[in-house]
């Protein structure tokens, strides 16, 4: 009896998850169903489909999850106004909520204008990259920087998608356009209003001092922020410890994910990131434990 209990506890502890993934409904290269099957093939117990400014793939992902035995969390990643780069993740959201549908109309209008600006900047820099080419590899009609980077790589302008971000498309780089529809507080409030849990994604990309970050997170907590990403594929062990400790200090929870995009960012694998990630199922249990 005692032996069986110990084995069960061990198996639960070994269940791994990935709460930050993207499909062809934003800037990933796998369809929602392919993504879930891929997660199953890697032995993951749960994933969140957190496409950029879109929930179009969530129902397919959840349906496929039931078929193959992978728990799928309905989620979204909202890009928000920032001097650098700030994203807010929403977990367990009501994807059919009227407030979300209304907000996404404005968000998509802004996203289109931003994409046009990015394409124009790339052209002015000498790169022959068109909106038509980007749409051709974006079946859901939502273009992101990764689409432009992939085209640049295929045309030989750069050696990898990562190089495209590092040199041209990342924050502060020549082709970057940071125009966004929502403020961070508006995004948090929206997620809470549609029944979800709000988390700041990859806080290191906000690129502010630790004290400024704490003040920012404290302000967002007053609007309902639940936590921050405590696991992420770019974190060093020291960064992971810092952000998890910061969350605890501020009374916030943690989430975790790889930011998987499949072929759009091939250096990142689902579940393990760049090879060394392992996010325990207990993180997901804690998110939904009010």
Q: Could you report the average pLDDT, rounded to the nearest whole number?
A: 93
* Domain tally: 1
The largest β sheet comes out as:
8 strands, mixed
Count of DSSP H/I helices: 11
User: Radius of gyration from the CA trace?
Assistant: 19 Å
> Could you please say which CATH topology applies here?
TIM Barrel
Going by CATH, the architecture would be Alpha-Beta Barrel
Task: Determine the N-to-C terminus distance.
Answer: 32 Å
As a percent range, the share of strand residues is: 5-15%
Low-confidence stretches: 1-13
Number of DSSP E strands = 8
Overall form: globular
CATH superfamily: Metal-dependent hydrolases
Structural category is alpha/beta
Helix content: 40-55%
- Assigned CATH class: Alpha Beta
The H-and-E topology, N to C, reads as HEHEHEEHHHHHEHEHEEH
- Order of strands in the sheet with the most strands? 7-6-5-4-3-2-1-8
Structure description:
The protein is an alpha/beta fold and 290 residues long. It has a single domain (16-287), classed as TIM Barrel, CATH 3.20.20. Helix content is 44%, strand content 15%. The chain contains eleven helices and eight strands. The protein has helices at residues 2-14, 32-41, 58-68, 98-124, 131-136, 145-154, 161-169, 184-193, 210-221, 237-249, 281-287; strands at 16-21, 46-49, 71-80, 86-91, 197-200, 227-232, 253-257, 279-280. It has an eight-stranded mixed sheet, with helices on both faces. Strand 3 (71-80) and strand 4 form a beta hairpin. Helix 2 (32-41) runs parallel beside helix 3 and helix 6 packs across helix 7 (161-169). The longest helix is centred in the middle third of the chain and has 27 residues, at 98-124. The chain is globular and about 50 Å long. Mean pLDDT is 93; it is low at 1-13.
């Amino acid at each position: 009896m005692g032996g069986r209990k110990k084995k069960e506890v061990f198996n639960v502890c070994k269940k791994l998850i990935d709460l930050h993934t993207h499909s062809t409904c934003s800037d990933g290269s796998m369809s929602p169903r392919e993504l879930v099957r891929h997660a199953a093939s890697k032995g993951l117990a749960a994933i969140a489909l957190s496409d950029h400014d879109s929930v179009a793939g969530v129902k397919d992902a959840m349906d496929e999850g039931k078929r193959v035995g992978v728990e799928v969390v309905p989620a979204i990643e909202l890009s928000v106004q920032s001097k650098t780069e700030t994203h807010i993740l929403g977990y367990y959201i009501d994807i059919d909520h009227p407030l979300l549908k209304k907000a996404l109309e404005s968000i998509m209008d802004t996203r289109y204008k931003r994409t046009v600006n990015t394409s124009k900047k790339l052209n002015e820099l000498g790169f022959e990259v068109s909106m038509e080419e980007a749409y051709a590899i974006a079946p859901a009609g939502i273009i992101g920087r990764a689409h432009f980077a992939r085209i640049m790589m295929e045309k030989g302008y750069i050696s990898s998608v990562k190089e495209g971000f590092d040199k041209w498309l990342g924050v502060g780089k020549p082709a970057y356009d940071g125009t966004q529809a929502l403020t961070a507080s508006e995004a948090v409030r929206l997620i809470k209003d549609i029944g979800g849990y709000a988390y700041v994604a990859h806080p290191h990309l906000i690129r502010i001092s630790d004290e400024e970050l704490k003040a920012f997170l404290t302000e967002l907590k007053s609007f309902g922020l639940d936590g921050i990403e405590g696991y992420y594929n770019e974190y060093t062990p020291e960064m992971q410890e810092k952000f998890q400790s910061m969350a605890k200090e501020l009374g916030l929870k943690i989430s975790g994910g790889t930011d998987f995009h499949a072929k759009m960012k091939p250096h990142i694998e689902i579940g393990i990131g760049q090879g060394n990630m392992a996010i325990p199922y207990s993180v997901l249990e804690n998110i939904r434990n009010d």
